């Protein structure tokens, strides 16, 4: 290595050690500047870019963005080193540059750690110090801004810096920020315990309940296709009626653990339910606040089975789930505050800065527009919006604000987070039917799946084995609730094992057939018939 190469390597290595130090110190505040930077990029990027990233990268978009930012930081360090070595600025110019870069790095690290956590002074300052110590010492040990040491010593210095970062990681972990303070309600805790605690002031955690659907028929062969379809062959003498629970079929009502998760966040807000309160305010007669246990024990709280789907889901995609929620009608919360005739929108504001709105007319009309505080009989998991989130059956998931902190009545039209990025405002779900399973039992082949038509409901599902030339009516299971999808299956006598072009289409409760027109998710949700070619 000549001097220039060594400088470039030295600065790039310092940047890498800086990133390692940042990640090592992260547990101290419960987040890190890299995630904050990614969040700033996501929120500042134009809707079209954010949407493209979601559509092409899906759930990988956020980690990919963080990786990109990390690589850019290392490249910038190498670039600065190449510049100073290549253009030979004077010693004093070089010192100015090094000082400037150092100050920038210190400020970015500190601001990032402050923003990543709850802003407690000693936590973010200590995290900043822990993160900056390894790269700082690496620079000092390698002779400041003009490295002139041998390779062996460089490697030794690097090893020392990484060791220092490891020490920082241990320190950060042991001082780690608890998810919430005190012994208030935690995500995923028994709802009964929360209600009891309100009465007695104690909490008794219990073990979760699980609902694994029974599977029928021994599976001889099974594979999953890219279309989220499980194709399998069961014993020929397995129950010829199939039921609705054969391999690949989702449970009619799923659990919190298998519910899809979508949000704009690199890391989700940690809300302390003990300190949280729901503010009901805006253009109302009297604003008021509710505590978490006020909502949990609300007289109108009820259990509700609801299907939600993300508007960015592709035809046949897995961003659709059904769960049992504990929830309180939003109109019950608002009526207590008194809503004037001039009210237009009911705006929900969230801890992550997300907002959504739904017309007051819809809220006052519908008992099923609710604020949910529980799932599967427990408090919400953090990723589903602990401690409280909205649910609007029949609208895409984007309308269902998670981590709600305030419900605000507005006299004007409010533009929601995704609406501002070019997605439709109303987000009424398009009628859909997805194949989830194709199974052979002897000469009989069953196609099974789910169909959802929002508030219109589902009246029928048809299945084709020949790419849509001929159709047969599927058998439908009763929906688990008026707010949920319906499972279907169709069994046909098909002795030959050649390729089958399976297609499904639904008819909603108004008698309208699901459109065959294929559209992408943006801006109003995907449409088109789900089809999959299988051989079994
Ligand atoms: N606060 C907040 N709420 C949000 C989002 C978000 O990014 N922030 N994403 C929305 C979107 S696009 C969807 S599809 C649903 C997903 O809810 P889930 O993760 O509980 O399934 O949350 C919605 N609510
Ligand atoms: Mo979504």
TrEMBL record:
- Which BP terms does GO give this entry? sulfur compound metabolic process
Transmembrane spans = 7-29, 64-84, 96-115, 121-142, 154-172
Species this protein is from: Halosimplex carlsbadense 2-9-1
Protein's name according to its UniProt entry: Oxidoreductase molybdopterin binding protein
- Look up the domain of life of the source: Archaea
One Pfam assignment: Mo-co_dimer
Give start and end of each Moybdenum cofactor oxidoreductase dimerisation domain.
437-533
List compositional bias (Basic and acidic residues) regions by residue number.
510-520
**Essential cofactor(s):** Mo-molybdopterin
Chain spans, region Disordered: 196-227, 508-536
Q: Where is the Oxidoreductase molybdopterin-binding domain?
A: 268-418
One GO molecular function term?
Answer: molybdopterin cofactor binding
InterPro entries named among the record's database cross-references:
Ig_E-set, MoCF_OxRdtse_dimer, Mopterin_OxRdtase_euk, OxRdtase_Mopterin-bd_dom, OxRdtase_Mopterin-bd_sf
Keywords for this protein: Membrane, Metal-binding, Molybdenum, Oxidoreductase, Transmembrane, Transmembrane helix
